[in-house]
Amino acid sequence: MRIARHFTKADQSAYHGISFKESTSEIRNPDGSIVFRLENFDAPEHWSQVATDIIAQKYFRKAGIAAKLKTVEEETVPSWLWRSIPDEEALAELPENERYSGETSAKQVFRRLAGTWVYWGWKGGYFDAEEDAKTFYDEMCYMLANQMAAPNSPQWFNTGMHWAYGIDGPSQGHFYVDFETGKMVASQSAYEHPQPHACFIQSVSDDLVNEGGIMDLWIREARLFKYGSGTGSNFSQIRGSEEPLSGGGQSSGLMSFLKIGDRAAGAIKSGGTTRRAAKMVTIDVDHPDIENYVNWKVVEEQKVAALVAGSKLADIHLNAVIAACCDENGDVAGEDIFDPRSNKALKKAIIGARKSHIPENYIQRVIQFAKQGYTEIDFKTYDTDWDSEAYLTVSGQNSNNSVRITNDFLQKVLEDGEWELIRRTDGGVHKRIRARELWDQIGFAAWASADPGIQFDTTINEWHTCPNSGRINASNPCSEYMFLDDTACNLASINLLNFRNPEDGSFDIPGYEHTIRLWTVVLEISVLMAQFPSREIAQLSYEFRTLGLGYANIGGLLMAGGMGYDSDDGRALAGALTAILTGTSYATSAEMAEELGTFPGFEDNRDAMLQVIRNHRRAAYGEDKGYEGLTIKPVPLDIGNCPDINLAVAAGRAWDRALELGEKHGYRNAQASVIAPTGTIGLVMDCDTTGIEPDFALVKFKKLAGGGYFKIINRTVPIGLRTLGYSAEEIEAIANYAVGHGTLMGAPGVNHDRLRKKGFDDAVLAKVDEAVVSAFDIKFAFNRYSLGDDFCMKTLGLTDADLNDPTFDLLAAIGFTQDDIEAANTFCAGAMTLEGAPHLKEEHMHIFDCANPCGKNGKRALSWKSHINMLAAAQPFISGAISKTINMPNSATVEECKDAYQISWQLGLKANALYRDGSKLSQPLNSQILDDDVEDTEEAIAEIVESPQAEKAKVIAERIVQRMISERSTLPPRRKGYTQKAIVGGRKVYLRTGEYENGTIGEIFIDMHKEGAAFRSLMNNFAIAVSIGLQYGVPLEEFVEAFTFTRFDPSGIVEGNDAIKMSTSILDYIFRELAVSYLGRSDLAHVEPADILPDAVGRGNKEGNLPNAVEDVQLEAAKRLASTGYVRSNLYVLQGGAATAREIVEDTVVGVESTVEEAMASIADAVSAPSSLTGDGSANSVTVSAAITAHSNSKLDLVREARLQGYEGDACGECGNFTLVRNGTCLKCNTCGSTSGCS
């Protein structure tokens, strides 16, 4: 082939104009211990610290490189391409510790990659002349150094070790087909033929121990995991449970073997350099065990919940039993202390344990321990961390699960017809079920556990280029590679943003096409040089030669161009770029076929493949009819909305050429493109967004070379703002709003002047300003570690107990209000969102929408439908499929999950994986950063779901909550409350409330005018039941949620109530009234309570904020006198009336404060503004205790910070840092680059 230069010149170095710098890379665990450190290595100067860390920690060879090398002469290869081996004679002259080392320059890595590709390309006849080979080498080195494209991780790990350094080792059981003879060869070397493929699909037969069977698959999977690759299999050939065995008896079924494979995969990690095992399990929807499979992870998640809750309950109750046996201060002693009939405390502890279903054997065992002198029992408890012992105990945690769905099944769902599950042994009907019932199970499982995903079998096989060679049954772990069983695919991705002209915003179409052409050749050469883990994969990879070229950073490109991810022009641009990608790649494949021949399986599938190419071409021309052999029509290119018509023209031209050359010469490759998640390689290319994903956060935390992070606005945000016409001053103001000013000087609310009045001197203020630069919330800068214990205790008057209390808010304790803190926080630490930013126009907000709400108060996020629509715009132009998770909010319903699957099918997608926020215990709600040892209140638990993502990170509450029965809190004999008369549906209703002294409701009375005795007595007893519940600590919120919107007569128009005008029943009216009056739930009112008042002046505290830690003494006094419910939280204590204020304080504070004067002084600041009177939410004397949370630890702080940065909140399994982000269908660590996928 002829290779032209586009980025380099013949008389210049490939790195001309690229500066390299001496770098240091360090990755630390959260505890500060060093995971990896490398000094004095070279990397491109323009690379970020993260990209530099990735290449140094992940991709540099760490050992075994000889200090002295010599070349091995080959007659048929140019001298500059001769491979190298250690020069043993020269090495012998060096000290032993200097003979071997690791790679110390990025140029070494670029050379061994590009050099190996050119070496094998030359041997395979891919270049017309030596100049073409040199051009190819220079162009590849340039693109790697400029982060324009990158191959998948196994290439970085394995390619070039033998060619560049002579590194070798014993064979690992691999095979390859000799490209010159066409014969199968067993590898004799570990590295001469590298394993560059990331994605594998392997078959498994219904056989236990023979080759190709179940147990053989675990060995083949292990071989792949070791080299950093991922694999998927369709297990549908394995017979179901209760099907007969040839030797008699019944099969244990599919699930027993899946659990074995899952445990085997979980035990394997690849070579210390990559991620956990990456695996996909696929089952056909007509398999006899499909129901058990669909609910597999749902059940396993329940087991984890049971382990966590059960272990903590057992720990509490068993220690209570042993404590009762050791308490000699009671009325019993000696042997009687172990007898529950004599020891009342022991009897109570045993009854409590039995009520929690603690096994009787354990209870008796603990008593026996106590008799032997033990005073406590160490019962191991579990937590819900994804890498915890609880998750290691259950199965199903090491794979992505998918169900193969056919059009026939979906049609049965629409018709509500029956679906047949087919036995694998004889093809008979195992069971008939309603299709909708199974569909409901799939939807619920996806909602509850984020698995299984769906693969649309009919659509996949209708786009199959080689149907005459077999069906497509499975995919790789991330679902982008779909082809025949026992085949492999090596991936590479192009960084789209690097082809955007920063001056005028135009896209470099010739450069993009040139890059596609060269990387298609790279992937084809990789097939030629590769070795494979089995004979079957080696043979079929040789025969079909599938490639996986894709792109990354489409989200960044759209934002830079001022286009929203959820917009017509954004989707049109993505469609055009995807069409150019695959069309150009197929055209290049046809060029190679002209010179090297087609792939061996082409002639058997010529008509089918050209039909697929024609369908791609029709979509590229925007046609909506004429498609051949497709049941579901694709979404064609939206040429009218394409922001650059040249891209649409180039798309059509690419497919014209692909079809023309394919008809003439055939194709070298059966598939050309996929869109992968680009996890680790996305980091090494400094991509703002990965694959086809939108951005996950607008504010990024950029790593510093010396450790630590600083906040920067996503680099595409300023570019996008410039594109939209904002001035430099406006852009700076918007950026400052998002990332903050990094100092409290001049901040509203909390600033240097106010802090000096509290006792802060210049030295302490300097410490605070130093801490807030990298803080995610200014509260993190005000603690004993940044201020020092001496200052906190002596100057601020805090106690050691205060400083050790994880819930202690230092700023609130020294007199700052929540509004003060929030205002200063936005000024100093930034809002981490563009919502509310100065100058930013509302019509531009959608351009900067991300997958999740950004910052503490962000509410905007892309809808789940926008993700599907983007996939639909790109899928018609992809040979394989697209790896992407459809993000859904926590509030999404099961029906919405099913709708997402159905819409995906109707739009022609090949696969869909859903992730509903909070659907897994191991990856909790973005708001729920839950740890077993942190306490929180019932109110916080109730509010947590409604809070923005990062704001919820401040509120800590355990998911598995165990409530201990509290004692009843009686109301005072003379109590306040209010009476509300109303007419509901023509019937008079009288509601009377009784309150505790703090304004919390404790009882209700309900009377109906002129109703029958039976109905009035029922209402009376219902009110008593509710009252008892309130006095035992049941939150009013629970009653409100249970009884609002209930429907029965009387119902209809409400008269006599100024806030509620309509109800669906008496109970609906009563609990709407209570919610409005005591909970401030104006959403349940028809008239805003504030609008009823003559004015609406107040403090403006946002609904949902935690209460201020500093209580207003006057306000508390007022609560004793006025009914909270009567004033509907709108009583205000205003400044003025000093004598009255003094009288109130004398009534309430004397005996607590030493003098009235001191008490008045302590509240001077508090009464300077009006304060809203609200109930505390529960009676002070009611205690709700649990294994919820008792103390904070360093891990919890790290989780909080991770949530505020937009990360998932889990620790990376390799480096331990809390920087995991969702990436395609996988997770990726932004610190060390580890992913749970293939790239």
Layout of strands and helices, then pairs:
Elements: E1 20-28, E2 34-44, H1 49-59, E3 65-66, E4 69-71, E5 84-86, H2 88-92, E6 100-101, H3 106-123, H4 130-145, E7 149-151, H5 153-158, H6 161-165, E8 175-177, E9 184-186, E10 199-201, H7 214-226, E11 230-234, H8 254-266, E12 278-284, H9 290-294, H10 296-326, H11 344-355, H12 360-371, H13 389-393, E13 400-405, H14 407-415, E14 418-422, E15 429-434, H15 435-449, E16 453-456, H16 457-462, E17 487-495, H17 509-529, H18 535-544, E18 547-552, H19 554-560, H20 568-596, H21 606-620, H22 645-665, H23 679-684, E19 699-703, E20 709-713, H24 716-723, H25 728-739, H26 752-757, H27 762-772, H28 784-787, H29 789-795, H30 800-804, H31 810-813, H32 818-828, H33 864-874, E21 885-888, H34 894-906, E22 911-916, H35 938-943, H36 949-952, E23 979-984, E24 987-995, E25 1001-1008, H37 1013-1031, H38 1036-1043, E26 1052-1055, E27 1062-1063, H39 1066-1078, H40 1089-1092, H41 1113-1121, H42 1124-1127, H43 1138-1149, H44 1156-1162, H45 1194-1205, E28 1220-1223, E29 1226-1229
Helix pairs in contact: 3-4, 3-17, 7-8, 10-11, 10-12, 15-34, 17-20, 19-24, 20-22, 20-33, 21-22, 38-39, 41-43
